Amino acid sequence: MTTREEASALVLRMQECFNTRQFDQAADLFTPDFLNHPLGATGFEAGKEAWVQVVAQFPAMRVVADDILIDGDKVAIRSSVEGMAAPGSDVRPMLIEIFRIDNGRLAETWGVTEGPDPRH
Known about the structure:
Largest sheet: 6 strands, mixed
Strand order of the largest sheet: 2-1-6-5-4-3
Helix content: 25-40%
Strand content: 35-45%
């Protein structure tokens, strides 16, 4: 069983690995069969590749946790996304993710992004 503090620390550590671009250091945070529903992919490498692609397009991108809600083996995190504002706009996208934790590791995720699309 993962405690509330451990669950919160786990998702914050994942964000830290993303924000510092130390993607490989995040591998231990995920189960071997991690299921990423938005990508329709299994395993850490698929998510890592998505991270690589998004930061290639938005090199200044950072995610900052605004809210973390924990219920049993699920963690919901609402994050502000910095470094992706549409040209001429101060409105930042928001990322909402839900993770299922299994044995202290991220096992499954669902997520949506809200806000302006900086590509338009």
